[in-house]
Amino acid sequence: MASFETVAKQFVDFYYTTFDTDRKQLAALYRDNSMLTFESGQQLGATNITEKLLSLPFQKVAHKIEMLDAQPTATGGIMILVIGKLLVDEEQQPLSYSQAFHLTQDSNGQYFVYNDIFRLVYG
Amino acid sequence: MASFETVAKQFVDFYYTTFDTDRKQLAALYRDNSMLTFESGQQLGATNITEKLLSLPFQKVAHKIEMLDAQPTATGGIMILVIGKLLVDEEQQPLSYSQAFHLTQDSNGQYFVYNDIFRLVYG
């Protein structure tokens, strides 16, 4: 079984690659009880979360991970904190952001995002 | 019973007030299985975590919370993401930071910090 660090790294790489190329595919990473807090707006469930992510007002986006830390939780989950930068559309100035994920396993042992909190960080 | 938002707010206020006035009292918020990742260094257990926090090379520190988001977890815990600024010693220029906490309840229903990840954010 892969270590929690390996799962965290693979998950985050996959998450941002998917976000930057075909956002609607992110739906597969959430379930009906997943939660997203995105810049204070709150969404419950894969459908609402995907709708929110698809509604974000940019055409192009590129995430760059700067720091990724992960810890196992008591119940077989993984908590992840990402610090990164993102570029939207034709902007030249990257924005700093922080995103916390809590991955848990479903009954098949498949990881999904239970908690997801995203915030831009202003210097 | 207090809502998860109330618990999160009270916890974070208490945590930073204690950090800024008497760091060694933070030991009470951790248990033997608690984890801290502080700027990539990893500590396990209240004793090691407190030792690490006490060893930080500044005399004075002041945290200012800028954003605080919280979500409940599936097992009665709370995931918290804080974005803030901190001033150390005589520095005039605050540093941005991001800190993710995962609070869980012990057998008496008392919340403690199970996961704690801290990172400075460079603009």
Plain-language structure description:
- The structure is a homodimer of 123-residue chains.
- Chain A is of the alpha+beta class and 123 residues long.
- Chain A has one domain: Roll (Nuclear Transport Factor 2, Chain: A), CATH 3.10.450.
- The first copy, chain A, contains two helices and six strands.
- A six-stranded mixed β-sheet of chain A has the order 2-1-6-5-4-3, with helices on one face.
- The first copy, chain A, starts with a helix and ends with a strand.
- The mean pLDDT of chain A is 95.
- Chains A and B meet through strand 1, strand 3, strand 4, strand 5 and strand 6 of A and strand 1, strand 3, strand 4, strand 5 and strand 6 of B.
- Chains A, B: Keywords: Cytoplasm, Nucleus, Protein transport, Transport.
- Chains A, B: InterPro entries: NTF2, NTF2-like_dom_sf, NTF2_dom, Nuclear_transport_factor_2_euk.
- Chains A, B: It comes from Parathielavia hyrcaniae.
- Chains A, B: It is found in: Cytoplasm; Nucleus.
- Chains A, B: This is Nuclear transport factor 2.
What are the SSEs and their pairings?
The structure is a homodimer of 123-residue chains.
Chain A: H1 4-21, E1 30-38, E2 41-44, H2 46-55, E3 61-72, E4 78-88, E5 95-105, E6 111-121
Parallel strand pairs in A: 1-6
Antiparallel strand pairs in A: 1-2, 3-4, 4-5, 5-6
